[in-house]
């Protein structure tokens, strides 16, 4: 069973042992609107926390997905290149962006849990 | 098209339903009738094309009508109000066009000996003088072909200056949230790492966060002023001093120069490099109507690294320097030849016809017109930041909250009213942005007609008539396009209905 964390950039991080799966939240996909292009990092890419990791483009805007923690990419969700709509349809599940190893588990302490993120989103309205 | 309006032809009055040129005519038809050459020796080693190449076959009048009909579907500054924020869609005086068409300017070739084009070189030198005079800067590179190209020029000069100082470890560029989107792209293209700086509650750079980010890895800062929220960055001098104290360079995005030309001496702000969009501030056709030009002015610190060519006055004439002379250290060239010459002529014609006082009045009127929109619309639409704006007025979508109408829907309804919509969803720092830049060349009558329409639409949205907006536009040659489908499954090329022989 993985533990869910969230960032203020509306990304979710599902941590299972030493592996983190990263995607964007339902709030993020709603704000972006229909996603039309996604570029995910390739396995082996070394990311520092806060680095630009992926690109997401909707009919409204192009944005970056940042590395929520420091580590090395183990897998990118290459299916998103063909079917970017998956980010809209299933942001928390099939619409995951990439998986990465976790260099420093203490970085997770800076992230929000589900309740804190829900409160954060509510404060934005 | 609605059923009760249906016509046999599909045309609606003089709005012609025009097929693609490839769907018209026949391969057997040709607009010109030339005899076959008698002597056709094969100089291609037997590789001459033998199959059809699939060009459309139409007569000259058919071609003329086709393109005229297409042009009539355009909306342009010559057709109506065009308040597209961040684009400075102002009137392009016809005097400029007349000057650019003078045979001595229009019929030049860039390979002509310099002695035969002294007038053209004098125009470039005169334009340089104007740009340096208006900014107080040390040097100018005329060759950048557009705004983002001018940014590239300025940041390449920054990079060259750092390398000359032996400080090539400085590879970070700070870019505030309120900067133009091309700024981070330019920094990345130059090999710099981009670090964003947040804005404060007033829509300007957070000075404390800015200063905290300055360290010895920072190569420079790219700031837009007036920024893309249409606000003047009041702390500019303080920011520039901090940048220089940290050993970095200050790039100013001059795309919004139209708001301050004739009023702010750029050099006094501590700027090291700034591009000037001649096509915006100095009124040459753009946005599908013509090429841009983005000359870049440089401070004394960066001037030695200005790209070639240089335009210098010598004796009675003007000389184009195309190769390194003396101790100059140009970082290279920005493009082949010498820049967008036709745009230079138009911009200089605009500057000379308005004069310095006229330019000063133009920037004042541009700000006045934007504040007129702000004043008339501000009580109904929601202004994103308090206080007066510069050359553009920024609203967000709070006034549409709960109506079921989005910024996009609202913009589509404005098309039905006969206006080009404002810029939407940019800048990204506010929600559902509507950025309106009226420019100084619009009359009060035009601004009032626009405001009347916007206010009526806002009342309609608040009255709960969401369908009116989500179904707009109704009066255009095509209704609402499926932007998602267009982006996800674009059809980029016309395919002939029957399999045609491939080009050989």
TrEMBL record, chain A:
Function field: The glycine cleavage system catalyzes the degradation of glycine. The H protein shuttles the methylamine group of glycine from the P protein to the T protein.
Residue(s) carrying N6-lipoyllysine: 60
Protein name per Swiss-Prot or TrEMBL: Glycine cleavage system H protein
One family name in Pfam for this protein: GCV_H
GO cellular component entries: cytosol; glycine cleavage complex
A GO biological process held by the record: glycine decarboxylation via glycine cleavage system
Sorted UniProt keywords: Lipoyl
Cofactor note text: Binds 1 lipoyl cofactor covalently.
CDD domains, per database record: GCS_H
From TrEMBL, chain B:
Catalytic activity entry: N(6)-[(R)-lipoyl]-L-lysyl-[glycine-cleavage complex H protein] + glycine + H(+) = N(6)-[(R)-S(8)-aminomethyldihydrolipoyl]-L-lysyl-[glycine-cleavage complex H protein] + CO2
Record keywords, A-Z: Aminotransferase, Oxidoreductase, Pyridoxal phosphate, Transferase
UniProt GO BP: glycine decarboxylation via glycine cleavage system
InterPro entries: Aminotrans_V_dom (IPR000192), GDC-P_C (IPR049316), GDC_P (IPR020581), PyrdxlP-dep_Trfase (IPR015424), PyrdxlP-dep_Trfase_major (IPR015421), PyrdxlP-dep_Trfase_small (IPR015422)
Enzyme Commission code(s) on record: 1.4.4.2
Gene3D superfamilies, alphabetized: 6.20.440.10, Aspartate Aminotransferase, domain 1, Type I PLP-dependent aspartate aminotransferase-like (Major domain)
Annotated region described as Disordered, given as residue ranges: 484-504
Residue ranges of domain Aminotransferase class V in the record: 167-287
Domain Glycine dehydrogenase C-terminal stretches: 363-461
Protein name: glycine dehydrogenase (aminomethyl-transferring)
Annotated organism of origin: Roseospira navarrensis
């Amino acid at each position: 069973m993985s533990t869910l964390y969230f960032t203020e950039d509306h990304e979710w991080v599902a941590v299972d042992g030493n592996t983190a799966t990263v995607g964007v939240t339902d709030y993020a996909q709603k704000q972006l609107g229909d996603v039309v292009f996604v570029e995910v990092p390739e396995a082996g890419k070394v990311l520092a926390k806060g680095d630009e990791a992926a690109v997401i483009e909707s009919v409204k805007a192009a944005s970056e997905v940042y590395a929520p923690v420091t580590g090395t990419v183990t897998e990118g969700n290459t299916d998103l290149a063909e079917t970017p709509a998956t980010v809209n349809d299933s942001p928390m599940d099939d619409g995951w962006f990439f998986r990465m190893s976790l260099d420093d588990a203490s970085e997770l302490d800076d992230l929000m849990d589900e309740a804190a993120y829900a409160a954060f989103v509510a404060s934005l309205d | 098209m609605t059923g009760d309006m249906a016509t046999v032809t599909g045309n609606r009055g003089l709005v012609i339903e025009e097929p693609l040129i490839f769907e018209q005519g026949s391969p057997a038809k040709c607009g010109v009738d030339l005899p076959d050459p008698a002597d056709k020796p094969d100089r291609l080693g037997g590789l001459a094309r033998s199959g059809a190449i699939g060009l459309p076959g139409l007569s000259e009048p058919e071609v003329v009508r086709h393109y005229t009909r297409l042009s009539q579907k355009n909306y342009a500054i010559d057709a109506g109000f065009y308040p597209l924020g961040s684009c400075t869609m102002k009137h392009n005086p016809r005097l400029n066009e007349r000057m650019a068409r003078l045979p001595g300017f229009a019929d030049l070739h860039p390979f002509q000996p310099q002695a035969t084009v002294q007038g053209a070189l004098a125009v470039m030198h005169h334009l340089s003088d104007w740009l340096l005079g208006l900014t107080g800067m040390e040097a100018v590179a005329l060759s950048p072909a557009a705004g983002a190209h001018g940014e590239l020029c300025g940041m390449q000069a920054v990079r060259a200056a750092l390398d000359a100082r032996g400080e090539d470890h400085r590879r970070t560029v700070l870019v505030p949230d309120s900067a133009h989107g091309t700024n981070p792209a330019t920094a990345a293209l130059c090999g710099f790492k981009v670090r964003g700086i947040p804005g404060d509650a007033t829509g300007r750079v957070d000075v404390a966060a800015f200063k905290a980010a300055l360290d010895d890895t920072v190569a420079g800062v790219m700031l837009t002023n007036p920024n893309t929220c249409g606000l003047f960055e009041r702390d500019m001098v303080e920011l520039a001093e901090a940048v220089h104290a940290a050993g970095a360079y200050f790039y100013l995005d001059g795309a919004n120069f139209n708001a301050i030309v004739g009023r702010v001496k750029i050099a006094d702000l501590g700027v090291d490099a700034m591009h000037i969009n001649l096509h915006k501030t100095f009124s040459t056709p753009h946005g599908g109507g013509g090429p841009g030009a983005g000359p870049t002015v440089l401070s004394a610190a960066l001037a030695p690294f200005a790209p070639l060519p240089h335009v210098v006055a010598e004796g009675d004439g003007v000389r184009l320097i195309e190769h390194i002379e003396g101790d100059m250290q140009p970082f290279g060239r920005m493009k082949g030849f010498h820049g967008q010459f036709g745009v230079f002529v138009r911009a200089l014609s605009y500057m000379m016809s308005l004069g310095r006082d006229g330019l000063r009045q133009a920037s004042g009127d541009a700000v006045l017109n934007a504040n007129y929109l702000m004043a008339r619309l501000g009580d109904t639409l929601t202004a994103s930041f308090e206080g007066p704006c510069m050359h553009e007025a920024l609203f967000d979508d709070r006034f549409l909250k709960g109506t079921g109408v989005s910024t996009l829907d609202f913009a589509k309804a404005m098309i039905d009213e006969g206006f080009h919509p404002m810029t939407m969803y940019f800048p990204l720092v506010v929600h559902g942005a509507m950025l309106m830049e009226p420019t100084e060349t619009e009359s009060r009558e035009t601004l009032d007609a626009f405001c009347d329409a916007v206010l009526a639409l806002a009342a309609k949205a608040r009255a709960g008539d969401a369908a009116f907006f989500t179904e707009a536009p109704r009066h255009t040659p095509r209704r609402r396009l499926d932007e998602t489908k267009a982006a996800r499954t674009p059809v980029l090329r016309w395919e002939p209905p029957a399999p045609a022989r491939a080009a050989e």
